[in-house]
Amino acid sequence: MALVAKIGVLAGLALVGIAVLKLALGLVGSLVGFLLGAVVKVALILLFGWLLLKAWRYLARKPAI
Fold first, then answer.
1. Would you tell me how many other CB atoms lie within 10 Å of the CB of residue 53?
2. Residue 1 per-residue DSSP state
3. Does the N terminus or the C terminus of the chain have fewer Cβ atoms within 10 A?
4. What 3-state DSSP class applies to 26?
5. Cα-atom radius of gyration of the chain, to the nearest Å?
6. How many percent of the chain have pLDDT more than 70?
């Protein structure tokens, strides 16, 4: 009976370990996803600002009608 109890305890610990590992990987994955999303947003904002600046300079160079 003690062997069955030890196997049950080990199986329970394995399940808890797997759950904790999945939780940790999920948190790391969401953090990485958040950081990548933030980097992409900043890159898009900088690109849009650069294009706007180019258009502004182009329009400022053009003679008024």
1. 10
2. -
3. C
4. helix
5. 28
6. 97
